[in-house]
Amino acid sequence: MNKVGFLGAYGTFSEIAVKQFFRGKNYTACSYTNFPDIIREIEQDQLDYAMLPIENTTTGIIYRTYDLLKDSDVFAVGEQNVRIEEHLIGLPGAKIEELREVYTHPEPIEQCRGFFNQHPWIRPIAFQDTAKSVEYVKQCQDPTKAALASWLAAEHYGLPILMSRVQDNQENITRFFCIAHHPQKIKGANKISMFFVVNHEPGALYHVIEVFARHGINMLKLESRPLKGRVFEYCFYIDFDGSTEQRSTQEALAEVRRLCIEMKILGCYPKVEREEWV
């Protein structure tokens, strides 16, 4: 049975990503409090897989995850998109008009500003994570306290949802990578994530992009990130259609490698189509 790591307490959106990605398969989900511990256990083969958040439709890419992938001996072998639906969770019988405090992670506070503006008597309070905030509300047994978290957190701690989907953006999606210690040949893999650094000189980035265009490769995303220890110099993260098993892609990557100071394929995996997660 595979061991799969995720960040946060049981009931977080990361655990939902695990449930969705490994649906119908035998696995054990393992909770972790930080990214470095997950990466280390993957590298030491103490974990078979891990689900790490990589990008959000509201806040953009999650740089700490990308940087860990760049600097570690791990690779993306799949992706999963999860709808981030924040539910107001409280004690049985609690009433919204009697609430005074709502606990949650700082990000959901920003994502639910409309709810707090409409309910000015409720004070948002930042907490370590969404699921733990539900646990805290249950421990307090105070009907004036509630939490913002996932349906899974409500289910895990046995508390009712007082109001569903209170986030401002109803299309708030987080993309997760499933990572493993080694690259894997996966049937249907058609998307590649890559890291690269080019010389800090005019046209350097253009020449890399031109290779993809010339080979007819569709670029899905290009992000820059400051290079540690090098003032105003940048590395780049890119997603594009293709497979490392395709000859045309191999030829393009060989050209790109000659243009780069550093380069790493972060993973080749099946693309999640919209109809799979709507």
* Total number of helices: 9
Q: Write down the CATH class of the largest domain.
A: Alpha Beta
**Helical percentage:** 25-40%
From the N-terminal CA to the C-terminal CA, the straight-line distance is 29 Å
Give the overall shape.
elongated
Order of helices and strands: EHEHEEHEEEHHEHEHEEEHEEHE
Radius of gyration: 21 Å
Structural class: alpha/beta
Number of strands: 15
What's the name of the CATH homologous superfamily of the largest domain?
Answer: Periplasmic binding protein-like II
Query: Would you tell me which CATH topology of the largest domain applies?
Result: D-Maltodextrin-Binding Protein, domain 2
Main sheet: strands, sense, barrel: 6 strands, mixed
The CATH architecture term of the largest domain is: 3-Layer(aba) Sandwich
Indicate the mean pLDDT. Answer: 93
Domain count: the total is 3
What key phrases describe this protein's structure?
single chain, 278 residues, alpha/beta, D-Maltodextrin-Binding Protein, domain 2, Alpha-Beta Plaits, 3 domains, six-stranded mixed sheet, five-stranded mixed sheet, 9 helices, 33% strand
What does this structure look like?
29% of the residues lie in helices and 33% in strands. By secondary structure, it is an alpha/beta fold. It has three domains: 2-83 and 172-180, D-Maltodextrin-Binding Protein, domain 2, CATH 3.40.190; 87-163, D-Maltodextrin-Binding Protein, domain 2 (3-Layer(aba) Sandwich), CATH 3.40.190; 191-276, ACT domain (Alpha-Beta Plaits, 2-Layer Sandwich). The strands form three sheets. Strands 1, 2, 3, 4, 5 and 11 form a six-stranded mixed beta sheet that branches. It has a five-stranded mixed beta sheet with strand order 8-7-9-6-10. The longest helix is centred in the C-terminal third of the chain and has 13 residues, at 247-259. The radius of gyration is 21 Å and the shape is elongated. The model has no long low-confidence stretch (mean pLDDT 93).
